[in-house]
Specification:
nine-stranded antiparallel beta sheet; binds zinc ion; mainly beta; four-stranded antiparallel beta sheet; 1 helix; 290 residues
């Protein structure tokens, strides 16, 4: 070990998602280093890694996206070994975000392998198959004031706005694990500048997709990160917080990618639930009788 001269370079890591409870770091190991990650989030995190290495070999590649399981500490991404005696250096650039975009959301059942199909049906339900509950109480009826690809804030976005008075109970449309809760904001305005003051709950689904419930009322969340919620569970009260023109619930389902989200259209159970599930349409009122 001491016959090698170790040159430590100031690590310049950057990423645009520093709000995630996630970090990567180097640790000294025999004849080199390990490059590790701590993921304290309640869902997997995918991390794009760009290592700059001089006189070091990497056991698990480079310039790749690595999947770090939920709630994992000291996860070894790769081991770095000195190639020959002499100077070496390392540096890392990473970008990361929630979810598993190394293996993608399972949104198709077009898989030939019988075992794979049975596993998917048992353990995950894809977005194309999944039927969502209306996110409010039985008996309530609300209008979709802005639908998929709506003319105002939903351009090129598959999101839904349910017009409802402040303080309306919000129920989970699908079961999952709560990843993030922000309900401390109080500010509202009708311009994009208020986007940063959004109050929301983020839930991770078994197929790798997420749902977001936005503009919830200040201090109204009934759940915390790590909570497992069931479909139809009370999670918060609606509000008018953040970038919002009127009291409503903004709901969207998406697949996360490193920077952007791919929002998804999803089918809902409406009325008493005996008729076919539908994609909700703008300016139509939907009652939950189930
Ligand atoms: Zn909206």
């Amino acid at each position: 070990m001491n016959k090698y001269l170790f040159i430590f370079i100031l690590l310049i890591s950057y990423n645009s998602f520093s709000q995630l409870n996630f970090k990567t770091y180097f640790k000294k190991a025999e004849n080199g280093f390990e490059f590790l990650a701590d993921n304290n989030e309640y869902c997997p995190v995918s991390v794009e890694v760009d290592l700059e290495l001089v006189n070091l070999s990497t056991s698990n590649g480079n310039f790749k996206t690595y999947l770090i399981p939920a709630r994992t500490k000291d996860f070894v991404i790769t081991t770095l070994k000195a190639i020959k005696a002499g100077k070496y250096k390392y540096n890392s650039k990473t970008r990361y975000n929630y979810g598993d975009f190394a293996t993608k959301v399972k949104d198709t059942v077009a898989v030939k392998d019988k075992d794979t199909i049975s596993v998917k049906k048992k353990d995950t339900v894809s977005n194309q198959e999944y039927i969502y509950n209306l996110p409010y109480k039985k008996g309530k009826k609300f209008k979709v004031s802005q639908g998929y690809n709506g003319a105002e804030t939903h351009q090129k976005k598959n999101a839904l706005d349910f017009l409802m008075p402040i303080g309306t109970d919000i129920y989970a449309a699908r079961e999952g694990v709560v990843i993030k809760v922000v309900d401390y904001n109080t500010k509202t305005c009708i311009t994009k500048g208020c986007l940063e003051y959004n109050n929301f709950i983020l839930i991770y689904h078994s197929d790798g997709s997420f749902s977001e419930y936005s503009h919830i009322n200040t201090n109204s969340a009934k759940v915390k990160p790590g909570y497992k919620v069931t479909k139809g569970q009370l999670i918060a009260k609606s509000g008018n917080i953040g970038w919002s023109t009127n009291p409503h619930l903004h709901f969207e389902v998406f697949k996360q990618e490193i920077i952007k989200r791919e929002t998804l259209k999803t089918k809902f159970k409406i009325n008493d639930g005996t008729e076919a599930s539908v994609y909700l349409e703008e300016n139509v009122k939907y009652q939950r009788k189930y």
